[in-house]
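agent: user wants the structure for DUF1540 domain-containing protein from Cytobacillus spartinae. delegating to structure tool.
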Amino acid sequence: MAQDILCEVSSCVHNISNENKCGATQIYVVNHRDKNASNSGETDCKTFEPADL
Ligand code: SF4
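agent: tool returned. relaying tokens verbatim.
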């Protein structure tokens, strides 16, 4: 089970500023556009919520 999730998406409300870490209790990662992923670029974080930037 992942405990430290690194993430560079600073526009997400769950992203911990300046640490490139996710502060969410859990995340849900899905296939990009409902196509089975064959590399990491074809996955998406569905837990993303936009931060007030
Ligand atoms: S919820 Fe997803 S996009 Fe947002 S910080 Fe966590 S891993 Fe990154």
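agent: one observation worth passing along. Residues 5, 7, 9, 12, 14-15, 22, 24, 27, 45, 47-48 surround iron/sulfur cluster (CB under 6 Å).
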